[in-house]
Design brief:
Single alpha-helices involved in coiled-coils or other helix-helix interfaces, Rieske Iron-sulfur Protein, 12 strands, 19% strand, binds FE2/S2 (inorganic) cluster, disulfide bond, iron, iron-sulfur
Amino acid sequence: MVSLAGPSGFLSPYLHTAKVLLSRQVKAVVPAAASSGHAAVKQRGSSGDSALFSGHFGVRYAHTDIRIPDFSDYRRHEVMDPKKSAQDSSENRRAFSYLVTASTAVVGVYAAKTVVTQFVSSMSASADVLALSKIEIKLSDIPEGKNMTFKWRGKPLFVRHRTEKEITTEASVDLSELRDPQHDKDRVLNPSWVIVIGVCTHLGCVPIANAGDYGGYYCPCHGSHYDASGRIRKGPAPLNLEVPYYEFPDENIVIVG
Ligand code: FES
C-alpha cells in the first residue's frame, strides 16, 4: 500500500500533481496487475483540502529474499548482545586494542632493527677479507739490529728490532730538531720494536732500511733520511713514516692491523 497525504494550503497544487503522476506511473509499470483487479487508486478531494493515493498490487517492492550477511564471526563477544550497552565493555575492549597495537609496534620495531642490522652488516668486510687485513709476525725470527720487510695490505711493512744504542739515541732526540715532532715513545709500544709502513711520505717510494745519515731508513728517490724511529730528519719528505695499528698478544708475536 502506498499512501500520500498532505495538508491543505499552498501545497495543494504540488500534491495534486504528484497524485496524477503517481497514478500514471503505476499504470504504466504494472499494467497487468492493474488490469487484474488487484490495484485500486483512490482519490479524494482532487481539488480540495487533501489528497489520498492508495495502491494495492501484487507487486513486491522490497527484496526480502536477499540474505543479510552475518558478521557474528567478526564481532566481539561483548557486543553481541543487542540489549547490553557497548559502554559496559568498552574498558576491556580498549585494553585489548592497546595490547594488540603495542604488540604490533614491538614486532615491527624488532623486524625493522633486524633488517637494518643485516643491511649494514652486509656492507662490512667478510671474514676472509678481515683475515687478509691482519698479519701475524713471529718476532724471534728478526735478529737485533735487523729490519725485515713484509707485505701487508699491498704495502711494505717494516719491522725493526732495535739495539740498545738505537733506543737510547732515538729517545734522547730534541723534538725541536724535528720537522714532524713526535717523541720516540709515542711511536712504539715496545722500545725494541719499530713497526712502520715502508712508504716514503714524499712521493711514495720504498725507503732502504739501515741506510742514510741517521742510520734508520733512506729514500733514494729524492734523498729523504729517516731515523731509527722512522721520523723524517732530512730531505723533501714532509712527515714521519706512518705507524700502523698493532698489538703484542705475547712477547714473541705481533699482529698488525
Ligand atoms: S719519494 Fe722518497 S724522497 Fe721522494
